[in-house]
Specification:
mainly alpha, 19 helices, 75% helix, 525 residues, two-stranded antiparallel sheet
């Protein structure tokens, strides 16, 4: 006789958690394909003007200020046989897949022959990016919100959220789309395409393949998760949700802190551009040496070591920070660790530009300087990964606080706040980069000229009197350091310490059990 599989009514199974984490990894790969890859593509491949690119990103984020809480409200009011988050996780990944690919299907601004064609290129970039942001929100809010519905056990939830941030960090491997696309572009160069055409075709093909893989992985979350925490009978309206986001004190503190921390995202946005241009002179394929016919015959050890060290600092630092933070929270109060990452993390960020200045911009002259730079980036990235983990865990605590205080679980709305902060941060970071890049002339058709000059043998470090290199190091250093210090101000005296949250959650669990027992008693009669 075949045994029927029984669903644990209190917490998730290992298989369920695994499916969720695979899905979350795929979803974060999509995010990084766009946050790093599309930004690089817009800026350095199809060469959009710096301020136009910044305005596109900023407008999309202003719209998110309305769209994210609105989507959170819709999620919280959703009722289905699966629950309120699972339906979106089942059906949204294919939509995000299609729109993500569409954002890359544009013409090269540098090759436009008329002002009308230039306007169309910018318009499609704006429209497709806003469409992507809206579709991503529909999947992102339920993906994080469902974590507080999969278990009634605080430790299990904290463990899942910590793992979620670690696997989100693994999804960060998609930032390598830049390097992969450059390798793929070489195929088109060998077929006789111009450098501009080859770069674009390589990027589009890479984006399509990575997006398809990521979307299939994302679907695993919808197929795996089950919701166990009962939905509140009471629901807030959209207006009430906006009010709640600011009347819930601990959540308000996290929200404001996250916004102030926005410049930290410059490390992700500018990081791969820095690696590619400063350390690989504009093309990842420069780690290889070639003969007169263009055939690869060896490896340029200096370039390869520099690129690998800095890339490890960027990627592994965030991964290690995400992985170490859950263990640290067992010994250190969450909000105190959060503030330590904010203030302490500002130090390595600031030192990156200090080191660049005192070496007159020649950080890649020897292995030691490159290694020190990599260590500073590693520590900066660690703080970023740790803050991401703590933000998610603390937001989940705020949902319990809201249920305890007002009897309503606002999973969708509060995690829409996380989505909003992340995307607003990208918009603010893009605006900062646009202003600085525009000031030094790293914009539009000038980048196309730069790319051609680098392929002809120019040196990026000294190109444009070193202003381009200086701008990139400034962006990943000074604004993030300032933002991190400011972000500690709202949470310095945090309103929901761990001890208070544990008390609240214990009472909530008892209330849920009593309610379930009452319903069973009524059903028996």
């Amino acid at each position: 006789m075949q045994k029927t599989k029984t669903l644990n009514p209190y917490t998730y199974s290992k298989g369920e958690a695994a499916g969720y984490l695979v899905g979350l990894t795929g979803q974060n790969m999509i995010y990084n394909i766009v946050a790093t890859g599309l930004y690089y593509y817009f800026q350095n491949v199809i060469c959009l003007p710096a301020m136009a690119l910044s305005m596109i990103m900023l407008f999309a984020r202003i719209w998110d200020a309305v769209n994210d809480p609105m989507m959170g409200t819709i999620v919280d009011k959703t009722k289905s046989k699966w629950g309120k988050c699972k339906p979106y996780l089942l059906f949204v990944p294919p939509l995000i897949c299609v729109i993500t690919i569409l954002t890359f299907l544009n013409k090269n601004y540098a090759l436009a022959s008329t002002s009308g064609e230039e306007a169309l290129i910018i318009t499609w970039a704006a429209v497709s990016y806003v469409m992507w942001g809206m579709s991503y929100t529909i999947g992102d809010i339920p993906l994080w919100g469902v974590t507080s519905l999969m278990t009634q056990d605080e430790n299990d939830r904290a463990k899942l959220l910590a793992l979620a941030r670690i696997f989100a960090g693994i999804g960060g491997i998609a930032v390598l789309i830049v390097q992969i696309a450059q390798a793929v572009s070489q195929i088109y160069v060998n077929k006789g395409f111009s450098q501009e055409e080859a770069s674009q075709k390589g990027f589009i093909l890479t984006a399509i393949i990575l997006t398809l893989i990521s979307s299939i992985m994302f679907e695993f979350a919808g197929l795996s998760v089950h919701e166990r925490v009962a939905q509140s009978e009471k629901h807030y309206t959209l207006v009430e949700n906006f009010k709640t986001m600011f009347t819930n004190k601990p959540f308000r503190q996290i929200l404001i802190s996250g916004i102030l921390r926005s410049p930290i995202q410059l490390l992700s946005i500018v990081g791969m551009t820095l690696v590619t241009y400063y350390f690989a002179n504009g093309d990842f394929m420069n780690i290889f040496t070639t003969d007169a016919s263009g055939k690869i015959v060896g490896i340029d050890t200096k370039v390869a070591v520099d690129v690998i060290m800095i890339a490890i600092g960027l990627l592994i630092g965030m991964f290690v920070g995400s992985g170490a933070t859950p263990a640290l929270t067992k010994k250190i109060e969450k909000y105190k660790l959060y503030n330590f990452y904010s203030v302490g993390g500002a130090v390595p960020f600031a030192l990156i530009f200090v080191l660049f200045e005192i070496t007159n911009g020649n950080l890649k002259d020897n292995y030691i300087l490159a290694a020190v730079t990599a260590v500073l980036i590693f520590l900066a990235s660690w703080s970023m990964g740790g803050l991401n983990v703590l933000q998610s865990v603390m937001i989940a605590d705020c949902i319990d606080y809201e249920e305890y205080t007002n009897g309503v679980r606002t999973d969708g709305v509060f995690f829409s706040g996380q989505s909003f902060v992340t995307k607003l941060g990208a918009g603010i970071a893009s605006l900062i980069s646009g202003v600085i890049y525009n000031a030094v002339g790293y914009s539009g058709k000038a980048i196309n000229t730069l790319n051609n000059d680098l392929h002809a043998g120019a040196d990026f470090v000294t190109y444009a009197d070193g202003k381009y290199a200086m701008a990139m190091f400034l962006l990943i250093s000074v604004p993030p350091a300032i933002g991190l210090i400011l972000s500690a101000i709202p949470t310095w005296k945090y309103a929901l310490p761990d001890k208070e949250h544990s008390r609240i959650l214990s009472e909530l669990i008892e209330k849920r059990k009593a309610k379930a027992q009452n319903q069973d008693t009524l059903a028996d009669h």
